[in-house]
Structure formats: C-alpha cells, structure tokens
Amino acid sequence: MSKTAAECMPDASILIEKGFAIKPISQMDLTQKMALLEIRNATNIRRNMYDSLPIADKDHLAWCEAMAASRRDHIFGVTADNVIVGQFGLRSISWNDRR
After folding, report:
1. Residue 46 lies in a domain
2. In which residue ranges of the chain is pLDDT below 50?
3. Into how many domains does the chain fold?
4. 34 lies in which domain range?
5. CA-CA distance, 42 to 25, in Å (whole number)?
6. Which of 7, 10, 48, 77 satisfies CB 3.0 to 4.6 Å to 3 for a cystine?
C-alpha cells in the first residue's frame, strides 16, 4: 500500500542537524511554498531543470498540491530556523516493490 510523505514521517519536521529540519511539502505554508519558488526560479537552479523557463506562481502552487497528494513522489523543504533554504525529493517510490 502506498504512503504519503506525512505517513512516512511520524513528526512534521525532523531535526537533521542543529538548526536544520525537513518538512513535507504538504505541511508547508504559502510563504514557505513561495520561498521554494524563489529558489526554483533562481538562474543557477533553472539551468539544471527539465524546463529552464521561470515557473509561474500558479504553476508552482499547482505542482505543490500535486506533490502533496502524490503517493509516489515525496518533496521536502529544508528549513533553517523555519526559513526555506532548499528542497529535495524522493521520486517514483514503489512501496510495494520497496524501491
């Protein structure tokens, strides 16, 4: 059975190093999601993305919602003192096959 990111993490934020935590995209507020968009739209980040064009606000928020609802893709914000400083994701997870 598939799991959501929140089900994989018993706590909303897990301390991974002093001052840093990870937070599932499903638990990020609008300010944090928009901070993530700023990072995703940075020139040095965009040049390494599938599409190098800037991401529109509405498209980013739709992506956030889709990722929050996904059972196979899990996106996390990296925070420092509750400020988004980065993101990472686990994509195409197959819980049945454990890969």
Report:
1. yes
2. 10, 12-14
3. 1
4. 5-90
5. 19
6. 7
